[in-house]
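Comment thread on ticket #2218

A.B. wrote:
> Attaching the input chain for the structure job we discussed in standup.
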Amino acid sequence: MKLVFIFIIIGFTCFSQGHDSLLYQTQQIENDTERVNQLYKIGFDARNNDPEMSYEFARVCEQEASKTKSPKHLAKAYNLLGVLFYKKGNFTKALQYQKQALALNESIHNETGIAINQTNLGNIYSDINYLQLAEQSYLKALQSYNKCGNTLHIARSLNNLGVLKYNQKQYTAAIKQFEEALTYANQIGENELVASCYNNIGTILREQNKLDSALLYLEEGLKMRQLIDNEFELADSYNNIALVYIKQKNFNQASNYIALADDISMKYDYTEALLELYHTRSLFFEAQQNFEQANVWLKKHYQLKDSLQSIEKNNIESEFANNQKSTITNHQDTKQLHNLWLLISCIIMLIAIPLFLIRYKR
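C.D. wrote:
> Ran it. Output below, let me know if you need it in another format.
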């Protein structure tokens, strides 16, 4: 037991020092622009799994890019910082960095960079409900991707425009955008995007009560996700199909698809799907005039929603708190504190492992 404990401590210590070593190695690259490229790549790849590490690499990337005097590479650093502040929910800083990156890319006519920045600006404007500005940004991104001949991102830009129109309940315009995106996605065999387009069109048709047509599109999306073995998102497809059957009063089929969605959601601890599934169950019972059960599931939906929002807010604040108050120069103190918490976590794990099964986390 003592030997196992020592190995676990060593493992956690190595993990905590891993990205410091990676940062050091990256800074030893002699070519200035290649050093920036690698810092950007590592930071961008870590943006979802380790935002704190991503932020650290983004800051160093910005410092190194400033030394190169290269607008293209400085724009990369600003773009990554903009993405991170967007994920944090700090839209003011996200806009600031994306606009700085866009200005630099425009100064050197870097169409790919312009398209990326305009897409990110569209996402920000959409989230803060500046829908006209969001549409303008998405259209400019589409224009740049057309100049580059990037079919995949043309399709994704059309899909973004479709989502924007859907959120404004402009269903006919939304379907047109999704159908165009579907055409491009089929041309290049981008099956994941094909599935998404089918699902989006089916969802709109369901909203319009064109239920037979909705079912056809949703089932095509389901087949595509099964074909590419995208089991995770099958939960979304099953849930959407269940909603159609609820509207058709086909409660046996609705119940079957709810169960399928529930199995995947529980298997992968897919809380976002569970959130929607609770709402679907509420509608399922409401359609059968079982208002007591409908209310039970609606309460569960809102309780989980509140819980997720609270967790997300706390995670976002903790992820960025240390980095915004400190710089790389005082990183050693932060690392020591991090190691202390890892040691405490290690002890807790040794106690908890016999009591709980390992659960897959998204």
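A.B. wrote:
> Thanks. Noting for the ticket: The CA atoms of residues 262 and 324 lie 40 Å apart.
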